[in-house]
# Entry
Amino acid sequence: MTSTKISSIAKACSDLNVLNCLLTYKQHQFVVFYDENHRITVGSRKLDSDNWHFVQPSGFFIPERNRYSNVTEFDSHNYLTMAVDKDGYIHISGNMHVDPLIYYRSEYPLDIDSLCAVRHMTNERENRVTYPLFFKDHAGNLLFRYRDGMSGNGDDLYNIYDCQTKTWSRLLDSPLLNGEGERNGYARLPISGPDGYWHMLWMWRETPNCETNNNLSYAKSKDLIHWEKANGEPIALPIDIKRGDIIDPSPVKGGLINMSQELGFDNKGRVVITYHRYDEKGNSQAYIAQFKHDSWIIKQLSNWNFRWDFKGPGSIPADIIISAVKAIDNNRLEVEYHSSWCESGVWVIDEDSLEVIEQKKYIPQLSEANYKSNQPIHANTVVHVIPSINESLKPINKYYLRWETLEIFRDVPHDEHVEPTTLELIEII
# Structure
């Protein structure tokens, strides 16, 4: 059994089901979360100390929401994320669902006390921001991806940061994914593969209702600027529904859901896709796909007799989770699955045939006690355990952040009273 050290960080809000963020950089650790009053709070410590230092950055007033940028609403889209650039400056974004850009940057390296709100990055298309994410290119440059627009009508935009001038500019002259005013793409961040390419997976959605997801799609790029289909055919930007490389042309109400689409690599470095959709009987099933012999080969992994019947707008609970493939050895892959209707498990898959050759019990890396409620804030709570974003330390999953909240309320305000949760740090020792 893995040995762990658990320590308390601070009190955090528990009446809102939204993701906080933990980041480990060299010998420093940072956390950003909402306190019991829904205010953005940032903490820092050195890894050789258990003492956290906290600040609450100031905000600006958002007339459209009748709130300040450093205080959140009851919206599970308003997660918080952060990064440290290659000069050590801290970047934080979040608390947005079709809102003006909310972004903080430190004035000094590794110094949370100097975090200041920066009103604009490029000062273009920054009034309806959702899904902010930081990542880095092969040269270590900091990039920022977000959606401009709304569910069912939006574009994916990419910015790149210049450490020398401390300014952002567009990575691309056009959106990477273009909804054409009729839909939007729900994409995973591009992933750097063992073949030197960046690989990206997404699906399209026609309206704010989650059942209108359709057409699971893929593209790859050497430089994040020039994009191709799986067969190497160039894709003109922006990528719309007619230009992408469609893996599975699942129609609206076919069971595609943006919460269950993952991209990984097999033992030979080839791209493998896992996702959820309905079968011919309308039941939920897990599928695996790979590009072989000039076409996408799709195999069904599960044989379930239940249906995840999701529909409507707003955040929904992740009632089925299907992991990305994990390459193990001897041409075998593993895929974990979790469901509200059956026990969790692991499929062992032959990477050449994509057939399931074994089914195993799921064994979490942390003890099961870490995933069970131990804080009496409410009779029915959700336990969150997320790994740290790691800039320099290995193993990647050495640190985890843990807290408890109420269930998702589909982004609707509520008056359910609960005590604040204890935000905890789990360290594998």
User: Anything to note?
Assistant: The chain has a mean pLDDT of 96. Residues 268 and 284 are 30 Å apart (CA to CA). The chain has one domain: 4-428. The chain is about 0% helix and 45% strand.
